[in-house]
Predict the structure.
Amino acid sequence: MVRTISTPSLFVALLASAWILTACNAGNINELPESGSSFALLQEKVLTPNCATSGCHDTRNAVGGLDLSPQVAYKNLVGVEPSNQNAKADKLLRVKVGDPYKSFLYNKLDSANLHKSDGYGSAMPLGSRAVTAGQLDFVKFWISAGAPKNGTVADAKLLEDTRPQNEILSLPQPAQGVQMRLAPFPIAPQNEREIYSARQNTQDLIMTKFELVQRDRSHHFILYGYDPARAGRNVPPINTIRDLYLPNGQLIPERFTEMSSRTFLIASQLKAETIEFPAGMAMRIPANWLLDFNSHYTNGTRDTIRGEVIFNIHTTTPDRVKTYIKPLQLGFYNFLLQPKRETVVETTFLVGGSGSGNTDRFSSRDTVVNIVGLTSHTHRLAKRFVTTIVGGARNGEVVYTATNWLNPPLLNFTTPIVLRRGEGLKSTVTYYNDTDETVTFGFRSSDEMNFIFGYYY
């Protein structure tokens, strides 16, 4: 079910309310953020020591017309046009709510990907050591979560991460298991690239943990599997880079044929992530399967950047496994997001294969499922993703919420969510399309998606 909320009149009311609040609070416009909030930590750990220093973006100098002193930094950043003409021409804001890659602040701090050809000036902080990879991630996740002045939306531990931004990708070999790598590949300027590369799996992999590192500006990495016995002629070639798009931007039809036979295994949107299954549980990937690496990078710069992925599959032996789990993919594709509108999309997925989900469903053979993990996947326009239980004694119970499209949580359930035939899950996704174009489901970062991912037995 798709429920669309038309909001022009609502925005008029909100604007009026905002004007009244502004008038009433004119004397409080320079108020500091709440202590301990994500923005307060960003100010304390990044902006004040690196930017709001003497001769730079302090009150006295305000280089580029930007004062980042604690009392005024927030109002001078969020939703404000930069003074740099190239950034303005590229439709960047100093901080564009929900979109770090269209935020001038993030680009200026992203020293590994800021190029002279961008015309954005020098990387910041000028003449000093770049902010760390963890600090840059903190900025990215704060922006993608809506760039709030108050509230906690990013992990404070990132601010203590001392890894440099431009480190060489490396990952220690697993004590038991395999390490795999998607070698560096180019992404053209002002473009995005999504590729696939299949490898033959030569041994039974009983996976208990998945570790990944990849370069920044990755939109996602997904590991798919192909069972040759079921895929038939749709099995892709081995050790060949397969693009999703032609150079002119046209989708390559063969990719859709291949998609019809693949099985989702595991995925990540983060620069570094570890996914570990509950004790006694594992996922089996048979020896004769193909493993298909799917990597998607976006490049908003004016120079070529590189994509690269390294991941570990930690394994165990069959005698140590109590329960084999399976991947869960529930998606909805037939939605339409009108420009300058909020749209709420509700979709149900019922055990046994029914529901309003149009393609991805629970298996028709399932009578009882036990869900041990849930996460979500959308793109930038999604502001809130809520998953609730449908039917049974827990009908209507919220079991998952995400408000950060770039860093959705993966929830593990010590006590599985038990669903019987006719019961299921409902996703309620709130989108706000701030563009001037109608947006539908699609593979590009400018399109949208609507997925529940997880693990069950």
